[in-house]
Write a structure and sequence with these properties.
Blueprint lengths: L3 E4 L1 H5 L8 H12 L5 E7 L11 H6 L9 E6 L2 H7 L5 E9 L2 H8 L3 H18 L2 E7 L12 H13 L4 E6 L6 H14 L4 E6 L6 H10 L4 E4 L20 H10 L8 H14 L3
Parallel strand pairs: 1-2, 1-8, 2-3, 3-4, 4-5, 5-6, 6-7, 7-8
Helix pairs in contact: 2-11, 7-8, 8-9, 9-10
Length: 284
């Protein structure tokens, strides 16, 4: 499988308190669409009360220029209603759902239990098949949780197995709060890749700046080909804890992969423009 870079402006923006104007979001995402990432995680169909920052996802989508990009769009949903709404937009290729292996976080994030969320996933997979879309299921709290819920590698593998049996084609192992270690990454990623060879396994890691490179290195050495990241490491999950742990920084990921000789085929001019423009988007 070729290297896939998933840029996540949605994750970067969602925890910002001050509302970013719709036109500004669209201009930023339009720049990212020209860089050459495999996928842009651009918005979500969730309750405006839960994530006010993303309440204008449909309006942002209407302003995106998809005529000259090879990147595909991904939107996040938290329930069946959101999934049904997302199906109306042919521009969206991927529908993401955060399936937590922590019961506490599943309730906090989607206001539903793990078992209820599994039913949502089953119905979402059916909808995706009917509408020509692909589901991306995130194994949230995939490296541990801060709530005291039971966690170990066997639990991760167990729920991954359940999701794959239901028809999941893409699983993204998610470190929602930045607690993963290189040793965990080197254990869990090969475990899932070897157990489910027909399933695309990716990583959505959050990290502090001091530990980003060692996590990227561990993931790469473990065979990861699908990386989620956000420019400058902006973002974090506001539903997990009061404090946010940022995303993996795209520029650090790109630098590391290029040092390993990976050909990423990115438009560096547009990438630089997006880097500079991000200062206006995230100035608050």
């Amino acid at each position: 499988m070729p290297m896939k870079l998933i840029e996540c402006p949605r994750d970067a923006m969602q925890g910002i308190h001050d509302f970013i104007p719709t036109a500004l979001k669209a201009k930023y995402i339009n720049l990212l669409l020209q860089v050459g990432f495999d996928t842009i995680d651009f918005g979500s169909f969730v309750s405006p009360k839960a994530i006010p920052q993303l309440s204008d996802t449909k309006e942002v989508l209407a302003q995106l220029d998809l005529s000259k990009t090879t990147s595909k769009l991904l939107a996040i949903v938290a329930n069946l209603r959101g999934a049904e709404e997302a199906m109306f937009f042919p521009e969206i290729s991927y529908i993401g759902f955060p399936f937590s292996i922590s019961e506490t976080f599943q309730q906090r994030n989607t206001n539903s239990s793990i078992r209820e969320s599994l039913t949502t996933v089953e119905k979402m997979l059916e909808l995706c098949d009917q509408h020509g879309k692909t589901a991306v299921i995130y194994l949230s709290m995939g490296f541990g949780n801060p709530y005291g819920d039971e966690y170990n590698a066997s639990i991760v593998e167990q729920w991954a197995s359940v999701l794959v049996e239901r028809g999941t084609k893409i699983l993204s192992l998610s470190d929602t709060i930045g607690v993963s270690t290189p040793a965990q990454i080197e254990e869990l990623l090969p475990l899932l890749m070897n157990s489910f060879p027909e399933t695309e396994i990716g990583l959505h890691l959050h990290s502090n700046p001091d530990t980003r490179r060692e996590k990227i290195e561990a993931a790469y050495n473990a065979g990861c080909k699908r990386f989620d990241s956000a420019l400058k490491g902006f973002g974090g999950c506001p539903m997990a804890m009061d404090s946010l742990t940022g995303n993996m920084a795209t520029e650090e990921l790109i630098n590391y992969l290029e040092q390993q000789g990976e050909s990423l085929s990115l438009n560096k001019g547009k990438w630089l423009q997006a880097m500079l423009f991000s200062e206006e988007v995230f100035k608050s």
